[in-house]
Write a structure and sequence with these properties.
5 helices, about 240 residues, Lysozyme-like, alpha/beta, 2 domains
């Protein structure tokens, strides 16, 4: 009899615990979905854009695109890269300073003071870090920064990239496209200066002395893998 009474008394308590647990899960899910505008709810935020960097970006934009602004409005393309560093720490440290290292990047030092960066940095295990809001211009692809969201992948070469990064890139691109229906193109950095590809109609450069630099990241195998995952897992096909 006591055993039955204890069981009956426990039911409301168990129901209360279940309701509280469900409430906690729902609140956590709501918090995850309620990311600030311009930020991905599944990325870890490491925002490197200080007021100084925004000012340097606006100056870069004025010089190369004719408009003094750090705002990225209605992006049309996504560009995939690798960092040329094997570790996350080395990659992040390279992007963190607001000023370009003119010795390390002498090839683009004539183009402006702001350091190179990208909106996202994907670690080798597929963890996604967001370095900048999607509504901010990053310096990552000559002639297209004003309209391109950049995704950097930790790796010192095409062979150093991982399947986890490819899956993370595909999932991230899917979410970005949902937030920005204006996006039409997905390219690898190695494709950016190919004037025969559809994306090239977006090319804009006011400084005619600022020349393209040769690129080979992230490699066609990685790009093909991401495109296949996008098509098969999310039904997304973007032009290049």
């Amino acid at each position: 009899m006591r055993k039955e009474r204890r069981s009956c008394l426990d039911r409301p308590v168990l129901a209360l615990f279940a309701a509280v647990a469900l409430l906690v899960v729902c609140c956590a899910a709501t918090a995850a979905l309620a990311a600030p505008p311009g930020f991905d709810p599944e990325a870890k935020v490491l925002n490197i854009f200080t007021p100084l960097r925004l000012k340097l970006t606006a100056e870069y934009s004025q010089e190369h695109y004719g408009t003094y602004t750090a705002d990225l409005k209605q992006p049309k393309m996504i560009v995939l890269h690798y960092t040329a560093f094997h570790t996350f720490d080395d990659s992040y440290k390279f992007f963190l300073p607001p000023y370009l290292d003119t010795e390390e990047r002498a090839d683009i030092s004539s183009g402006g003071l702001v350091n190179v960066s990208a909106h996202y940095l994907v670690d080798r295990d597929g963890t996604i870090y967001q370095l900048a809001s999607e509504d901010v211009i990053c310096r990552h692809v000559i002639g297209f920064n004003y309209t391109a969201i950049g995704i950097e992948n930790v790796g010192d070469g095409a062979d150093d990239l991982t399947p986890a990064q490819a899956r993370a890139n595909a999932a991230l691109v899917n979410r970005i496209v949902k937030r920005h229906p204006s996006i039409e193109y997905l390219i690898g950095h190695q494709q950016y200066q190919n004037s025969n590809l559809p994306h090239f109609k977006l090319y804009l450069e006011k400084d005619r002395s600022y020349q393209f630099t040769p690129k080979q990241d992230p490699g066609f195998i990685f790009l093909k893998r991401v495109r296949k995952l996008l098509r098969e897992s999310y039904g997304i096909v973007l032009k290049n």
